Amino acid sequence: MRGTRLLGVASFLGLCSIGLLACGVFDGSVFGDEKANDGSSSGNNGNPPGSFGSSDGGPKSDADLYANDPLPKWCGPTNGPPAPPPPTGTLECPSDKNKPGCPCGTVGEEAACWTGLRVNRNLGICKDGRTKCVQVKENTAQWGPCEGQVLPASGAAKGKDACKCFSKGQWKLANTSPCFITYQDGSGNPIGSYGMSTILEAGAAKCPDVAPTPPPPVPSSEWGPTTLNVDCAGSFTLCYELKAGNFDAPSPSDCSLAKVCLPKQDYLKENVEQAFGSLPAWRSMDTACAKKFMDQGGYGEMTVQGESVLCDKIDDGAGKPYMFNRVKYCEFICNSQPSLPQCQNCQQGGSGTF
Predict the structure, then answer these.
(1) How many beta carbons lie within 10 A of that of residue 263, not counting itself?
(2) Are the CB atoms for 40 and 70 separated by under 8 Å?
(3) Does the N terminus or the C terminus of the chain have fewer Cβ atoms within 10 A?
(4) 350, 12 in Cβ contact below 8 A?
């Protein structure tokens, strides 16, 4: 019986581990195979698009962003913050956007401004600009140009450039290192290899004690704690799946060594790191997949499914979990020779942005 030594695990900006270590920096985030950024996924609390609670403001042409920019719905958890108050003003000049050319109160006053859709605001690459209240006539003041804002990239439908919920953030895993146990017969010939989660002792991952005969038991302690820091509040189910295959050319036929998930839970405040549960222990009975992972390498996939507080569904566009980051595992040789060039960035666990 022999267990491969565990040295590392992954990071989310990227990992590189074929066996146990994580190495490299790779932002494999491809979050959202979603519809175009037309605001169609959000409603207006039952009011027609293009209105602030009235029934007479229908949508105009797509050239006018504000005509097709309804107020988002609110699906916040009961123990979370309340829905933000609706803006005042008119369809053309709502109070929450400080649109260039719209009336303002105090000459010289500066404020945040936004000329895009509300559903994209402050998500992904998108950020507010700044505008200044200027005198245009003796008794007239209006907001000047919105300078410095970043809008969604033209044509983007997923990831940071599309400015969708869960397009930027960090899922931090304390441990993603697997252990592989190979059993042998009396003559020393291998009779089967099993993959299983490692355990953490004093912050380091190690193979758990196993039975002298196969199969090994499921480890008695969890794989490791996690935290989440993402650009939108909501309720999410996060999963991590280990697959045997080529990180650079993943295939639908790649076998799944293990998939572990956190129960659905509320993430109450955007852009704030919070504890998000621990990944459970696991053991794979698929000896063929374990051998493939050991011989050919493997990778991990992070997926999410849920709903934001603005009632946007977070999935792959077809109601299934969406893969937002892929992690590469280091070669097994890095366990015994960590000084090799390809092993320099290998680690047990860690964090990275997606």
Answers:
(1) 8
(2) no
(3) N
(4) yes
Ranges of residues in the chain with a pLDDT under 50 are 1-66, 350-351
- Is 93 inside any structural domain? no
Instruction: Tell me if 198 sits within 8 A of 178, measured CB to CB.
Output: yes
Q: What is the pLDDT of residues 232-261, one digit of tens each?
A: 899 999 999 999 999 999 999 999 999 999
| Residue 130 belongs to a domain | no
Question: Cα-flanking dihedrals φ and ψ of residue 43, to 5°?
Answer: -105, -165
Q: Which residues pair with 306 in a beta bridge?
A: 236, 314
Structural domain contains residue 64: no
Peptide bond between residue 215 and the one before it cis (omega within 30 degrees of 0):
yes
For residue 306, being part of any structural domain is answered with yes
Q: What residue numbers bound the domain in which 282 lies?
A: 2-34+166-343
- CB distance 351 to 22 below 8 Å: no
CA gyration radius for the chain? 25
Rounded alpha-carbon distances, angstroms, from residue 79 to 45, 66, 75, 259, 339? 20, 32, 12, 30, 49
Cα distances (angstroms) measured from residue 98 to each of 109, 112, 329: 11, 7, 48
- What CA–CA distance (Å, rounded) separates 215 from 293? 18
65 vs 320: CA distance, rounded Å: 30
Where does residue 299 rank: exposed (0-12), middle (13-18), buried (19+ CB within 10 A)?
Answer: buried
Cα–Cα distance for residue pair 94/92, rounded to 1 Å: 6
Distance CA 190, CA 186 (A): 10
pLDDT at 168: 82
pLDDT value, residue 353: 58
Number of compact structural domains in the chain: 1
Between the CA of residue 345 and those of 19, 204, 244, 334, what are the distances in Å?
14, 16, 21, 10
Contact 81, 97 (CB under 8 A): no
- Residue 187 CB: number of other CB atoms within 10 A? 5
At which residue do the structure tokens 């109160």 appear?
A: 105
